[in-house]
Amino acid sequence: MQTKALEIWLPAYLKQRRNPRPDDREPVQVCLAITDHWEPYWAKADDALAMARLEAWEQGWPRVTEGLADCRGRSPQHDFYYPLEDYRPEMLDRLAALCARGLGSVEVHLHHHGESSRELEDLLAGYARKLHHEHGLLERDPETGQVTYGFIHGNWALDNSLPDGSWCGRDDEISILARTGCYADFTLPSAPSPAQTRIINSIYYATDDPHRPKSHDSGDPAAVGRPPRGDLLMVQGVLALDWGRRKYGLLPHLEVSDLSWHNPPSLRRMPLWLDYAPVVRGAEKVRFIKLTCHGAPEKNQAVLLGAPMRAFLQGLVSRYNDGQRYCLKFMTSREMAQAIHRLERGEFPAC
């Protein structure tokens, strides 16, 4: 029987349920990002099908977002986490052109196994430099000049976190990510996979133990007035039990912040996301909602580039951007990480 890895994360969830956040009379700032495990070669697609999937996004995402804006006049954003192993120059050039229209960004995705630490480090650093120098993507750290990137691990196996060691193999992966310029990891949540961490619904810093797997199973929470304390910033999506949607009329649906054909975008999910949205401690009125999807497969395109996504985005703009109860901010992954660091420095943004 599938347990959805409950033994890993349920204790933290029950603790959070016992300590709900108080209502805040001030406007709640809703910072929303969509992180896409964008795999155009999914299911062993050939080049023609992969390019057709790209064309669907080139045409569909501008149409779905047309005329919609947050409290700053910013369009909805979509981050394409593109797999290193599927690199194609033309694909990245066209994604870069789409994002240059103010509609999102490209970040780093990787499925891997078996490399040495040095090989993995060279892969990640080389890919980041290639995206930056050859396609005008990513950004440099203003202090060090290093090219920086957001990261999502394939199969959720970050830092060798699957019990059988598959889809990674490196216990020192968090250190490798930090050295190669990763500004934050956006892999989690991963339930029902056993790669899920005990920490849930959180923004925190993982400190690597290079001699054991899953170092991000614990960490130090991001907090106002506290500088970063660890190797890698972890930005999680919401993991919760949705009692408003039940299997067989009894069992709650598992909410993992995914958008797909079987979990379409819907305003019905927003209250749960807001209740459990990760925050920087001391700045609870700023809530970070990180959604995820696999946007290349055709089944998912139907909702992500169609009427369900359009209705969802329209609803966000109309119901969660009134300036009194809510202020809505569409963000890329990088902008979300930057907003977190501003809060840590005590810089509270106005609506």
Q: What is the CATH topology classification name?
A: TIM Barrel
- Order of H and E elements: HEHEHEHEEHEEEEEEEHEHHEH
**Which of globular, elongated, flat, extended, rod-shaped describes the shape?**
globular
CATH C-level label:
Alpha Beta
Fraction in helix = 25-40%
Number of domains: 1
- Name the quaternary structure: single chain
Contiguous runs where pLDDT drops below 50 for at least 5 residues: none
Judged by helices, strands and strand pairing, the structural class is: alpha/beta
* CA gyration radius, whole angstroms: 19 Å
Strand fraction equals: 15-25%
Distance between the termini: 47 Å
Total helical segments: 9
CATH architecture: Alpha-Beta Barrel
Q: What is the mean pLDDT? A: 96
Task: Show the helix and strand layout.
Layout: H1 6-18, E1 28-37, H2 47-65, E2 78-83, H3 89-103, E3 104-110, H4 117-135, E4 139-140, E5 147-153, H5 173-179, E6 182-185, E7 203-206, E8 220-221, E9 232-235, E10 240-247, E11 251-255, E12 258-259, H6 270-276, E13 286-293, H7 298-304, H8 307-319, E14 326-330, H9 333-344
Parallel strand pairs: 1-2, 1-13, 1-14, 2-3, 3-5, 5-6, 12-13
Antiparallel strand pairs: 4-5, 7-8, 7-9, 10-11
Helix pairs in contact: 2-3, 4-5
Provide an overview of this structure:
The protein is of the alpha/beta class. The chain has a single domain (6-18, 25-344), classed as TIM Barrel (Alpha-Beta Barrel), CATH 3.20.20. It has nine helices and 14 strands. Helix 2 packs parallel to helix 3 (89-103) and helix 4 packs parallel to helix 5. The longest helix has 19 residues, at 47-65. The chain is globular, with a radius of gyration of 19 Å. The mean pLDDT is 96.
